[in-house]
Write a structure and sequence with these properties.
The structure holds 2 protein chains of 2 kinds. By secondary structure, chain A is α/β, with parallel strands linked by helices. Chain A has 8 helices and 7 strands, in the order βααβαβαβαβββααα. In chain A, strand 5 and strand 6 form a beta hairpin. Chain B is α/β, with parallel strands linked by helices. Chain B has a 5-stranded parallel β-sheet with strand order 5-4-3-6-7, sandwiched between helices. A 5-stranded parallel β-sheet of chain B has the order 17-16-15-18-19, with helices on one face. Classes of the chains: A alpha/beta, B alpha/beta. Bound molecules: iron/sulfur cluster. The site of iron/sulfur cluster has 12 residues of chain B, from loops.
Chain lengths: 203, 477
Amino acid sequence: MEAFIRVTGIAAPLVRINIDTDQIIPTLFLGGTDAKGYGAHLFHGWRFLPDGRPNPEFVLNQPPFDRAQVLLADRNFGCGSSRERAPKALREFGFRAILAPSYGGIFFNNCYRNGIVPVELPIEAVREIEAEVDANPSGQVTVDLESQRVTSPSGESYSFTAPTTLRDMLLAGVDEIELTLGRQSEIEQFREKDRARRPWAYL
Amino acid sequence: MKTFFEKVWQDHVITSLGDADLLQVDRLVLHELSGSQAVRALAEANRKPMAKEQVFTVIEHLISTRPGRGPTESASKSGPIMIETTRRASIDWGFHFIDYNDPRQGIAHVVAPELGIAFPGATLVCCDSHTSTVGGVGALAWGIGASEAEHVLATQTLAQSRPKTMRVNFDGKLQPGVYAKDMILALIGQVGAQGGIGYAVEYAGEAVRALPIEGRLTLCNMAIEFQAKYGFVPPDAVTLEYLRGREFSPKGEIWDAAAAYWLSLATDPGATFDLEVHVDCNTLAPQVTWGTSPQQVTSIEGSVPRPGEAADEKALGYMRLEAGTPLAGLKVDVAYIGSCTNARLSDLRAAADVLRGRKVAPGVMAICVPGSTPVKAAAEAEGLDRVFIDAGFEWHESACGFCGHIGDNRFADLRVVSTTNRNFEGRQGPKTRTHLASPATVAASAVAGCIADARSMTLSPALPQGGGSHTSPRGSA
Ligand code: SF4
C-alpha cells in the first residue's frame, strides 16, 4: 500500500452529514476491472451539470480547492456501499486525508488501503478549521499520522487517535498480504485444529 | 457469560494483532461488480487463492433481468467485461460458481442462505455492504472492500478491529400488515443513520423470535443503513429447521454435531452489551421514507416533517417535497419490488395478497424482480407470477436489477416506491426520488397510484379494484 507519514495541503470544506459512497462515486461509473480511472467521476452528481460541464457552485471546482489534499466533512462520511472505488476516486483526485467526526466502517478500512487517512475529529474541531479555511482558502492544513496531529493554517493543533494496526501498516506502506503470508504456519495450524472442531466450515 | 458475537469472534481469532485480530474467514462470496477487481488484482500480483473450496461466486449485480437474457447482457457499459472476468477467474480457479443461467442463481445475499453457504457461527464476507443480510441465519457476515477481498483470497483471513456490541430488542408483537421492513426502518429512524457506527448488532426480543428466517434476513440486510457492519439473529430452532437439507448444509452425523454446536452459540442469559436499544412493536405502523437517508422515515399515517437540520432541507429539495405533506396519497410513477432486502418468497406473497384481483393504476410502471431464480420458480409454482402479471407488473429474471443505477435510465426523474434499502440521491437513477417501504406497501401504492396503506386493502373485505385515484387507496377505477 501507498505509505503515509504526513501531508500538508489545502483543505476543502464539504461539511455535510451522511455523504454516502454513491455520492462520492455513483454506481454508473464503477465500470471496468481496473484499479484506476475513478478520479474523473469523483462526486459526479454534484461536480458536473447535467450537460457535463463543471458545476461552478461545487466547492471542488473552485480554486484553490481543486488542488485540495484534505477534505473536511461531517459525521458518517462514506456511509453506504462498500465500493472501494470511493477512496480510489478521492485519492486520484488528490486527497490524502479526510477530517470528519465519524465514517462508514467499510469505507474507513478501504481508505487505509488506498493511501488516505480518515481522521476522526470532533465536529467542533472540523468547524474551527473550516472557519479558518473560509477566511483564508489557501491556508495549509497538516495531517501527521506519525504524531497523530492535525495542524490548522493558524497553527492550532488537534490530536487524534488512529487504530494501531492500520496506522503501522500505512506508516510503513506494507504489503498486507505479504505480511499475513508470513504467518502461514500459524494459519495452517489454526485451520487444522478448527477443521477437527467445525468440519462443516470446510467443504 | 458471553454474547453470541463474542463466542463467534473468539472462535475465529488466529492471532491478536494488538487493536485488531487476524480472523479465519469461513466463506468468501464474490460477485461481478467488485469481485472482478479482486480476482484481477490477485492474478496481477501472481498469487493464488488459498482455499478455493471456501469461495463462492454468483453472477447477479450487473447481469440483465430481461427474460431470455444473454450470458453477458447488462445495462452497464462495462458489465460484459466485468461479468466475463469474474466468470473466467471463478472457473479457472475452481470456486463454487453460480452462473447467470444456473437454476440456483440470484442475488448473493438471497442465494447464500438458500443454499446453506451461510450457516450459524460462520464468518462470511463479500465485497458488498449488505453482506450482513445472512446474519439472519446466525452467520457473522460483513461487507469488505476489494483489497480486503484480495487478502481473503490469498490467505483466507482478514485483520479486523473488534467492534462494540449492541442489542436491539424488538419488544411486543407486530400487528397484522406490519413487517420486518417496517421494524428496521423504524429502528433506523430512532437511532439515526450513523447510530450503529462501531457496533455489531444483535437483534433480539419477542418480535424477532416470532419472525421466520426471511424476515430476519430483511432485518439484518439493513444493518449497514445505520452503519452497523454486522447484524445478526443468533440461531434457534427456526434457523435449524430452515437450514436442514440445503445443498451446502452439513449432513448426517456432522449435521447433528453442527446443530448442537450452533445452538450453543446463543447469547448467554446475563451476558452484557455495550448498548441496549428498545423498539416497541405493539404500536408499530407501516413505515415509508421521505428523504434521501433511511433515517428520514415516518409512519404511513404521518406527514413529511419540518426540517430539523440542513441535511433535511437538502433532502426535501431533492425529493421535491414540502413539510406537512401526508405521505399517504403522494403520487408515485414507479412501484418496484426487488433486491436483497425484500424479494424473497414471503415478500412476493405479501405483495400478491394485495394485488390479487386488482390492477396497477394507469400510468404507474410496476416491476417485480425476484430475489433469486429459486424464488422465482417457487412463486411461479404457486401462480404468483400470474397475479403480478395480471395486475400489470413486469415479471423479470433474478438479479440486482433496478436497485442501483448501473446504466438503465427507466427511473430517471421519477418518484419510485421501492422495497430496496437505499434512498440516496441518484441511487436508482438520475434525479430518481426513492421512497423505501415494505412489499405490501409498494403493492398497495402500485394499485392506488400513490403511496397507500396496504392494511386498508388486505385487512378489510375485498373491495372493488383501485386505480386512477391518487388520494385514496380505495379509489374506484
Ligand atoms: S439488490 Fe441492491 S442492495 Fe442488494 S446486493 Fe444488489 S445492488 Fe446491492
